[in-house]
C-alpha cells in the first residue's frame, strides 16, 4: 500500500445558485505516492492543485472517492488528528502561518498543543532549527524575517510535529529569488537526509525539475505523471497545457536539433553548462 492513496477523487464546489451546476474542480483523480518521494505538482491556475492538496489533510472532503494517508481514510473525522500528525501543509503566504512573537515559540506551538513535556518540546525545536540551519533566527520576531526565513519557520513548525510528509502549496510564490532557493534547498535536504515525503505545488519549472517526479494537472485531471526527464521531453505538450518550458530545456533541445551532441537527460542550466563544457574542452 502506498503512503498516500487517492482513489477516484472528485470534488465539486457547490454553486451559490441552487439551480446552477457546481464547479468540478477535481475530476476522478487517481494517484499513489510512496514514502520518501519528492513530487512537484504543476498546472495552470485553476487546474485543481490546491483543491487536491486540501483533501490530503481533511481541509476539504471528497464529493466522490477517497484519500488515504498511511492507510487512514482522511474523511473519517475521528482519525483526522492522526492524519495531521503524518502530513503538514505549508501555504503560500508566510504571514498567515506564524502565530507567536518569537521564532522558537512559534516552532514550539504545535508540540505544546500536543501537551508534550518541556524537555521533549525543547529537543524538537532544536532539531527543527538545526535541520533547516536557522538556529541563528531562534530569538527573532517573525516580522523581522525575510519571506524565505518565514517559510523556513513554518516548515520548522511542521518538523517539530514530527510529520514526515510536507505538502507545500506554492510556498515560494511570494518569495524573492534568494528566498526561493533557500526554501528549495531546505526541502531537498529534508528529503535526502531524513527521507521526508515532499509534495510541492509550484508554478516555477526550475523548482519542479528538481523533484523526482512531476504530476501535471489540467482542468481537474492528472494529465501527466513522470520523471522530469519524461515530462520535459514533450515541450509541445507542456506548452499546450499553458505551461512554460525552461530556457535550459529549450536550449538543449535546439542544440540537439542542430546536431550538437548533448546527452539525453539534460534539462537544468547546470547540466547543460556541463555538457557544453565537455564539448568545448574536446575541441
Ligand atoms: N472555495 C471555492 N469555492 C468555489 N470554487 C472554488 C473554490 N476554491 C477553488 N475553486 C475553483 O476550483 C477550481 C480549482 O481551483 P484550485 O484548486 O484553487 O486551482 P489551482 O490551485 O490549481 O490554481 C478553480 O476553478 C477555482 O475557481
Ligand atoms: Mg492554488
The name of the CATH superfamily reads P-loop containing nucleotide triphosphate hydrolases
Count the domains: 1
Count of distinct strands: 10
Question: And the CATH topology?
Answer: Rossmann fold
Q: Count of helices?
A: 11
CATH class: Alpha Beta
Terminal Cα separation, in Å? 52 Å
Structural notes for this entry:
By secondary structure, the protein is of the alpha/beta class. The protein has one domain (4-228): Rossmann fold (3-Layer(aba) Sandwich). Helix content is 40%, strand content 21%. It has eleven helices and ten strands. The strands form two sheets. A six-stranded mixed sheet has the order 6-7-8-3-9-10, sandwiched between helices. A four-stranded antiparallel sheet has the order 2-1-4-5, covered by helices on one side. The longest helix has 18 residues, at 177-194. The radius of gyration is 20 Å and the shape is globular. The site of magnesium ion has 3 residues, from helix 1.
Which tags fit this structure?
283 residues; alpha/beta; ATPase-coupled transmembrane transporter activity; binds adenosine-5'-diphosphate; binds magnesium ion; Energy-coupling factor transporter ATPase; 4-stranded antiparallel beta sheet; ABC_transporter-like_ATP-bd; 40% helix
Chain-wise SSE layout:
Layout: E1 4-13, E2 23-33, E3 38-42, H1 49-55, E4 64-69, E5 72-73, H2 80-86, E6 87-90, H3 103-113, H4 118-131, H5 147-160, E7 165-169, H6 177-194, E8 197-201, H7 205-208, E9 213-218, E10 221-226, H8 228-233, H9 235-240, H10 247-257, H11 269-282
Parallel strand pairs: 3-8, 3-9, 6-7, 7-8
Antiparallel strand pairs: 1-2, 1-4, 4-5, 9-10
Helix pairs in contact: 3-4, 3-5, 4-5, 5-6
The chain binds adenosine-5'-diphosphate and magnesium ion.
